[in-house]
Amino acid sequence: SEHLKNGGWNKFEKLIFVSNWQMQAYQAYYGFPWYKAMVLQNAIEPITPNKGNTDEKIKLIYCTTPHRGLEILLPVFDQLSKKYDNIELDVFSSFKAYGWEERDKPYEQLFDFAKNHPKINYHGYQPNEVVRDALSKAHIFAYPSIWMETSCMALMEAMSAGCVCVHPNYAALYETAANWTFMYQWCQDKRDHAKEFHGVLDTVIREINSDPIQSQIRGQKTYADVFYGWQMRKLQWNALLETLAKQKGIIS
Question: Alpha helix locations (H) across 31-125?
Fold first, then answer.
């Protein structure tokens, strides 16, 4: 992005960002004028929920790379698994998603812990259609993020899939969630973060069948499907490109 410095932004008709948080961070750093920027968020294909009975099993899921909070999730889940007999965690996590398998090495102990835990299923990297199927069956998206997300498609998909989403208000996550999720105050100290996450996740597990949570899930899914669906986003992209093409005289 360094070519945006010293007026480099002038080379472009428009700078497109995936969240307001990202756009404002870039503008503050590179100093381009606001009229040069625009937010067009990421988009997903909606997911149809296919949940099992929570009285029999409550399924949790983590489906992003390990450096985004897996080190907080696993010990917290381990503690809660001793309190609740009916919870299970699916972990889809590997840098293989980006073709960077060598970056998994620092997290091998975490992966081994997950593989050896009786209530955790470690899946490593899997294609998106496999993850989407798992999200459709999951009840809780457990994401104690320690990474500054510019946007979060995993959260968008989890919201669409009807998962109760538990995560901090860090970077662009609060914007992506749009107040439809169970958000908690992010903590820089990882032990304090784990305590905050544990408290909210414990509450969600205990109250997952309550009317307020079930009502929130329904509203959350409707929001995600409309505002993060490609039907909406393609209209916005087409409108932008047509406007720019008319300004340049490419089309009339």
Answer: 70-83, 108-116
Contact predicate 156/181, CB 8 Å: no
Yes or no: say if 96 and 123 are a contact pair by the CB < 8 Å rule.
no
Instruction: Tokens for 120, please give them.
Output: 């955790």
Tokens representing 191 are 């032990």
Q: Would you write out the chain's pLDDT as a tens digit for each of its 252 residues?
A: 888 999 999 999 999 999 999 999 999 999 999 999 999 999 999 999 999 999 899 999 999 999 999 999 999 999 999 999 999 999 999 999 889 899 999 999 999 999 999 999 999 999 999 999 999 999 999 999 999 999 999 999 999 999 999 999 999 999 999 999 999 999 999 999 999 999 999 999 999 999 999 999 999 999 999 999 999 999 999 999 999 999 989 988
Residues whose CB falls within 8 Å of the CB of residue 184, separated by 6 or more in sequence, listed in order? 166, 167, 168, 169, 196, 197, 199, 200
DSSP string, 202-240: HHHHHHTTSHHHHHHHHHHHHHHHHHSBHHHHHHHHHHH
- 165 DSSP β-pair partners: 141
95-121 in b/e form (b: 16+ CB < 10 A) is bebeeeeeebeebeebbebbeebebbe
Question: How many C-beta neighbours within 10 Å does residue 191 have?
Answer: 8
Q: What are phi and psi of 46, to 5 degrees?
A: -55, 155
Whole-angstrom distance, CA of residue 224 vs CA of residue 135:
14
Residue with tokens 């060598």: 102
pTM (predicted TM-score): 0.95
